[in-house]
Amino acid sequence: MRRQLLLQIHKGKAFTSHLLDQPTLPGHTAPTYTLHLSFRGQRFRSRPVACSDEPDLRESFLLELHLNGNRDAMLEVTDLLSVADKIHIVLVKTDPNSETHLVSSQYLDWRDVLCILTGKKTISIEMMGVGTESSISVGILDLTLSIIPQCDILSEEVLSEQRKLERSRQAERDRLFLVYTKQWWREYLQIRPSHSSRLVKLYASDDNQVNRPVCSYVQPLRCGRLLENPRQAARFVSLIKYDKPSAVGNSERSERWSSLHSFIAANKGDVENHAALLCSLLLGFGLNAYVCLGTKAKSSPHAWVVTIGPDDGSVTFWESLSANRYIHKPTTVNGILLKPPPASKHPYRTLGCVFNHKAFYANIQTSDDVTFADFDLGNTSLWKSMTAEAISSVCSPTVSWMEMPPLQRSVYDATTLSNSMEIELRRMISEYREGEGLTTVFDDQCSYMLSMALSAYETERITGQHYGNEEFSQSVTHTIPEGHTFKAYPIQFSYANARRSFASVLRSKTCTEVLQCRGDNVKLAVRVCVYPYAESAVATWIMFACKYQSIM
């Protein structure tokens, strides 16, 4: 028998993030709130509820209380006192068009319940905004914490002293690391004055405006059977929406490196979050991976991932926003140019530093141009490193923010969702053509045939290799009658919303030509293939097609 923590959410009140939303139109889905919880390797998600001032967020979650490496032991109160991990509560709002927004990211210290005679404590927690709005309340949650089964009572003085000790230890670690990084930075600038303009970042601000070492955002992440290989992992990360946190007014965009839990719960984030997640997944697969910070076209800051082969030192760049891979061929050895550099196929211009959970290297080569970069990280004349001891002091598994929540299986049923979207798109196509004064007849065989092409497109995005085009071409030739013309328009979305998808394709001249097809014996076809990955990441492929006999 194991000790458990029951967290019961009773209601929400004074929620404000929905107040500026437009009124929901009849027949449209209302915006919703969803709570996501993470605690010691456990993940939970509430049901979505309609947004309101007092959303009906009643839910119960049963959390396992265990020590690392021993999940079956019955923990006593002294053991529970040492479990300093906080419950991470994330609130996400979803719009009717499936667009998500990270509303709040809060950490709850649950151990006050250990001081209650009944083993049960009811509290209210204030949910604060994120980023630049982290000091603004977005709502209040009323909840109850219960220890099951009950354990001995802990005195409030003992709990208070334990928290003071934990804060003191963390503060001392942070202080020593800050002293080290200041000295390290002075040494880095003394090597070459121009280093001050290179993109070398040691700290980054998280959801709650807390500055954390950049190395703490990366940790090896294994995902069981959800993702089978590194390229599939890269495809998964690329399907998470790229979103730059914006600031109010005309100020520059605010930088925010979200925690992994917040990032995957909201299914959106900045490029640094994408790169950190991809690096974590590649490390989980056993690759020697690092996050790269530098610039791309127009000198805009960017992050990507590099993997370095253990034997030949082969270097591969991984673009986390597209899943594209680029082989980097070094053109210098120890700073000496070997040959004129070939035209770069990758979009990266400069490189400031690379890092993962165990290492940090700043580029001290004469030029920070990526084309000339030599990735012999052990060469101290090319890279300035931080000591492993300094990094481990703030990035070890004992540090609370280093807990990496496990990925969960997809929230989507591929077959059901594909069918429902296809039915809805057929209805919208018929209504659209009716508005153009055209009748609509669908060809089921032609629609079924389009699946081959969509499957080939998704496989190509994963592997980078063309696949299945010959069979699709033969099928079209065999199926389309002589004297008829066949037109098709494929498109891919990273969300599964038929109404939003159809509004998007109507902006394409090529697609509207297919949908407005005129002629003799006109037949339309549409096929939807939803490819779900882990979490809420999804590749939705849609192909619109028509066949007709031209009238001369």
Fold and architecture overview:
The protein is 27% helix and 28% strand. It contains eleven helices and 25 strands. The protein is of the alpha+beta class and 552 residues long. It is globular, with a radius of gyration of 27 Å. α2 (156-191) runs antiparallel to α6 (388-395) and α3 runs antiparallel to α5. β15 and β16 form a beta hairpin. The strands form seven sheets. A seven-stranded antiparallel β-sheet has the order 17-16-15-14-20-21-22. Strands 2, 3, 4, 6 and 7 form a five-stranded antiparallel β-sheet that branches.
Per-chain topology:
Layout: E1 4-13, E2 32-39, E3 42-45, E4 49-50, E5 59-64, H1 77-81, E6 87-94, E7 100-108, E8 120-128, E9 137-148, H2 156-191, E10 203-205, E11 211-213, H3 230-238, E12 241-242, H4 260-266, E13 268-269, H5 271-284, E14 289-296, E15 301-308, E16 315-318, E17 325-328, E18 332-333, E19 336-337, E20 348-355, E21 360-363, E22 383-385, H6 388-395, H7 414-435, H8 444-463, H9 469-479, E23 484-493, H10 498-505, H11 509-515, E24 520-532, E25 538-549
Parallel strand pairs: 12-13
Antiparallel strand pairs: 1-5, 1-9, 2-3, 2-4, 2-6, 6-7, 8-9, 10-11, 14-15, 14-20, 15-16, 16-17, 18-19, 20-21, 21-22, 23-25, 24-25
Helix pairs in contact: 2-6, 3-5, 8-9
